[in-house]
Amino acid sequence: MKEVNFLFLIISGKVYVDGMAIGSLRAEPHARLDLVTAFKPHPRVQGVRKEIPYVPASSWVGVLRHLLEKHYGLQAQTLRIRRRPGATIVAPLHECSSMDDILKCPVCKIFARRDIVAWFDDFEPLGSSYRIERGAKGGEYVINSDIDNNIVQVFVKDEVIVPRDIKSIAVPRDIARSQLGLRDIDKDVTGEDLIRRGLRLEPIPRQVQLVSGIFKFTAKFVMNKLVFDDLKPFFVGLVLLEDRYVGRRGTRGYGRVKFNDLAFSLRTREFYEYGKAEIKIDIPHNKPRDIITNWDKIRKTYEQVIQNLAK
Prior knowledge:
By secondary structure, the chain is α+β, with helices and mostly antiparallel strands. It has one domain (10-162, 202-310). It is built from 9 helices and 18 strands. The chain has helices at 57-71, 99-104, 108-111, 173-179, 191-196, 232-243, 269-274, 288-293, 295-310; strands at 7-21, 25-26, 34-35, 39-41, 45-47, 51-53, 81-84, 87-90, 118-120, 124-125, 130-134, 140-145, 152-161, 170-171, 189-190, 204-222, 256-268, 279-281. Strands 1, 5, 9, 10, 11, 12, 13, 16, 17 and 18 form a 10-stranded mixed sheet that branches. α1 packs across α6.
């Protein structure tokens, strides 16, 4: 029996997204509170903008990992510091320090930053080529693909917020002098400075992107470093993710996701070196919860495919 010394397991499928508010902070000089709409360039796009909407892998995987930490009762003992203009955010997470601990941990064994064994793709609209059109409503974009029409719908809408933390507001000197008429200013101005000078803080406009539609889902695992049961926490995480949300304002019903049409396939060394086809694994369950429920049967199917490869 020959040894299978390189094996990639590909799990792919569809993600149904409902009203997800995604983006990141934009460094606006007067507020730093705007959301950047999550579009990215794509080579096969036509229409009014040459970008496609997407959900960054760091967003959905970050939420999934956080939920698994809570589910397994793991302590968030490692500090991760993110610095943004005007703010420092400390976001602790669980991370095992030794390889022995990593190999015993249901989360770190898949998500550890040492000896990486898993890769996760951004959610992108279903299909391979797209046409972006403006919708009938203000701020609406409709994304059509080669798979189906109206595959994704995006609303970029204006909202306003009232700044809560006066101390976090920093207005550069040149902006304060030219736009606020404060000619005597020789330094950056804080929110407290503005109030002392009699200015009133008004609601700040921002753009918020809400995304709905059908996206592609792909996760990849190096199976010569994992056994099949190591992947079960990942599917538990998908179920947890469906029960929660991704993005902002989830308590108002936004950001719900559902996974469907999940498929399993294997890529061997021959796939990469000789162009051989993927090996499809025939699994009759295509939703995360059904996969968890029938885990033993699915493991046996996988192990039988591996035994056939080794003959």
